[in-house]
Write the structure tokens for this entry.
Amino acid sequence: MASQDDKSPVVTGRIIPVAIEDEVKTDYLTYAMSVIVARALPDVRDGLKPVHRRLLYAMDELGLRPGSATKKSARIVGDTMGKYHPHGDASLYDAMVRMAQDFSLRYPVVHGQGNFGSMDGDPAAASRYTEAKLSRIGDEMLQDLHKETVNFGPNYDESLTEPLVLPAAVPNLLINGSSGIAVGMATNMAPHNLVEVCDAVCAYIDNPEITIEELMKYVTGPDFPTGGIIFGRRGIREAYKTGRGKILVRGRFAVETTKNGKEQIIFNEVPYTVNKKVLLERIGILVRDKVIDGISSFNDESDRDGIRVVIELKKGAILKVVLNQLFSNTQLQTTFGIINLALVNGKPLCLNLKELIHYFVEHRVDVVTRRTQHDLRKAEERAHILAGLVIALANIDEVVAIIKASRDINTAKAKLQERFSLSEVQSQAIVDMRLGRLTSLEIEKLEQELAELKVQIAYFKSLLEDSNKLRGVIKDETRSISERYGDKRRTEIVHGEVENINIEDLIKKEEMMILISNLGYVKRVPVTAYKNQGRGGKGMISAKLNEDDFLEQIFVASTHEYITFITSAGKAYWMKVHEIPEGSRTSKGAHIKSLLTVSPNEEITAIVSLKDFTDDRYLFMGTARGVVKKVQTSEFSNAKTRGIIAIRLDEGDKLVSALLTGGTDEVVLISRKGQALRTHEDAVRAMGRSSRGVSGMKLDNDDELTGLLRVVTDETMLLLSEYGYGKRVDFSDFSSHGRGTRGQRIYTVSDKTGELVGCVNVLDNEEIMCITSQGKSIKLKVASIRVMGRSAQGVRILSIDKPDFVIGVDRIVKEDDAEEEGTTIDADAPVPNEAEPPVEE
């Protein structure tokens, strides 16, 4: 029997046993759905999450419109937190700050005043210091909100109501994108260009059956607020068709050359969401650890006008290599993963481009329909009152008498309703009417207002009756939004994948002189670095070489051309001219073996520039012993820097010259002793790369071939001897002979002139560059060298101090659209001796 003092609790109600796993599952699903619906994912209609929507609504209630003054951010955050969003003020302020950042949103919906952060990751100033209001495009999100266009629901404590969605006259979800991580799902929507999206919306309104491919003609791809370059369209197509895709984004850059000859990479745009400060820190670590070897310094010169990250390269660094290292190891190249996940009727769905546009248009149809219904009701109510006032004014004496005879207002209203068949609303308006409304002018105004209202009512009814007309209104409003707020694209979309991007598009096209020394040092120097000199000058230093080194080759080509090197062993290599390290006029350059896989016993003996490798262009080669060979340039397309066989040479023979031909040209073979053979290219059939070739010119035992020239009617041959004498000769002075013959005299060689070491085709308005073994060079006009006879020794072109000697000459080709440059005489050069007569036989 229980003791009377036993006070154990009495159980009331029922205890229901629930498995712990079932309870956790139910609670977690409830939490997950709360996060998905009420926190992390945007609504497909206005593109906003609840926190953003509540912030904009609170600003609207505070009257913070574009034309008004700003208010403290703390006030805005406080109102939102207290009335609609009972969460931490820090999270609310962060959300508002992002809506004001022009590097986070393509079209900011909040206008901020003060420090709202930067791309370097700097936080915004405290909310008590900054101020904000709605931006113009943010105000468009709230237009017609108070015309019963959207549903309102109770706030967290049911003391107030808040909009469940905004009217959103702009397609905010598409133009600004969104990102968020929910439970088990995430969204990452890219921003787009407003003009393109509005055009696509209008196209959809015109044709609801439009395909995604057709919509992509309007919406070409994402348009990030920070610009950049998107490579390829595959990821864009996948995202627009399936709602998911990956796109590759790179920062935009330009290449500049400093006064001291160093190359700089200037990044003025970076990929979206990249923290610039972290990016620079990463570059610093890579340079310190020598992962990237070619960077000498880097600096952030960004200011209020935009981004400017300057990366200066070391002398001799290859631009393409450094760029590839930067893109591979830093956020200068990023992948943006698109996930178009949004709430549709409260459910998360992954949407394609057409569905995103469809739901926006349907939302606008609903908003404009409800707005029209609201405006129609208001117009009809006003017209009803005006009709009563017009009746009263037409019978004003009787109305006054009825009111005067009535004991109170209610009696007067009842009598008026009975006498003139008025409604209660009309009779109330009559008794409330001021005496000032009895003037004839006021009567006219009432009648005019009533007539206008009848027109409006008819228009509103026609809109509600005709869905096509209603959609036309939406289209016109969308066009208006596009015209008022639209701008040009910031992000460029490049066709093709990233591997096919041509770095040359970012490199200035200019003529370069390529110099190769006997010990294998190579460099390129802009032709503009050399001043024009008069004939007979000593020239200027073009390279500071080692004591036992001297220059062997000179060549002029454009930075965008391929340059093919053919060695004394008959192997061919090629690279782009811009890939050769650029040096100053006096620098030594980089060793050829650091650029090409050249054997120790090989020497570069011939250089040819060409724009492309094709079947209808030929490489015509000549050896020291007079053997010639013709090969299609397409045979060398895979030579690159490892090299392939170009010609099989006899023992003791070496390749001395090569030129490009068209297959039906005439060529001139010129020997060191002054013999020239003009022959037709048809006499030499096209051969494979590994063949020997055929006899081209019969030479004496002590003679060698010095060069090959292609016959061009408007051009002349310019010859240069090893002691600086030269002349020009017309092609017409030579008749065509069969191959394997001696040819005709072209130059009289003597101890004074030395043997011929160079020959080149020239035009009268061009310039040439001559260079000596000790690195002296001279740039002069072709017109200063006369055309002479076949046996003449020529005039002094370059003053030579023995044991120095001339090693080569090349022409400087001007672009068709280039402006003529004025001649500049080097102040240190001696005045040419024009009185010196040409030496002729």
Observations:
- The mean pLDDT is 85.
- The chain has four domains: 48-167, 252-331, 363-484, 509-812.
- The longest helix spans residues 353-394.
- DSSP finds 17 helices and 41 strands in the chain.
